[in-house]
Amino acid sequence: MTPPENSRVIVTAGIERMAVEGAELFQRTAVASVARAGLFTVAVSGGSTPRPMHRLLAEDPYRSGIPWQFTHLFWVDERLVPVTDPDSNFGSAERDFLNQLTIPAGNIHPMSSRKPPAAAADDYEHELRRHFSRFASAEPVFDLIVLGVGEDGHTASIFPGDHSAEETTRWVTAVKGGTPYVARLTLTLPILNRARRIIYLISGSKKAVVVRSLLTDASAQLPPQRIAPQRGEIIWLLDSEAAELLPQDLSRCIRKD
Ligand code: 6PG
Prior knowledge:
Elements: E1 7-12, H1 15-37, E2 40-44, H2 51-57, H3 62-65, E3 71-75, E4 77-79, H4 89-96, E5 108-109, H5 117-135, E6 144-147, E7 172-177, E8 182-187, H6 189-192, E9 197-202, H7 208-216, E10 233-239, E11 253-255
Parallel strand pairs: 1-10, 1-11, 2-3, 2-6, 3-5, 6-9, 9-10
Antiparallel strand pairs: 4-8, 7-8
Helix pairs in contact: 1-2
The chain binds 6-phosphogluconic acid.
6-phosphogluconic acid binds near residues 77, 148 and 150.
């Protein structure tokens, strides 16, 4: 059994151990990006799974080891609810780590929940174009994108069968879906497919069926299976429950305690 090209799988004992692995990879990618280009551009996801990793980022060794001054933080997707709502991805990130760190305000790029969805998507695409043309090539190449996966096989707010999964030109689009079932903004496949590194964080036995489909059944055609950056790599960070239906002989898979 072989997961997709340019990808490897790391199975950890539980979500806390997975969070440490994620924070280590976050720091290593940040340090390498700043050494190479003077800048680290990362997009983070919402939902519950990344939260233990986010909390670790506000603690040493990551707090002092990550070059936050040179880090630009974007969002993979956002639920269009007030920032004070517990479902706001930006609001959760603020509470989990951003409020505890010293990062230049101009380095933090939340998706706006104040405008109508289509206008907010246009604004965010403009913000991305401004960032990438100012600091690098006009190509929107994220150094790191952290993604999650839902039980239905969505990633970011790209839902199976939805128009968001068919987008070929826009970098950001507005959708409605998921839990909570609200209007959302999401980065699209064209931009996700340009990343240098993608890390999926997936935890819990409720995700075991979809994880098996994603890594062993190419015919499932779920949105994550259409993410294969040509010049990038994908790291699947799973806990043992999410990995429980994977075959023991899965290649490019490391199991850590
Ligand atoms: C969002 C997401 C979404 C999430 C998955 C997994 O809803 O904001 O970014 O893609 O990553 O739904 O969510 P959980 O981590 O809560 O299972």
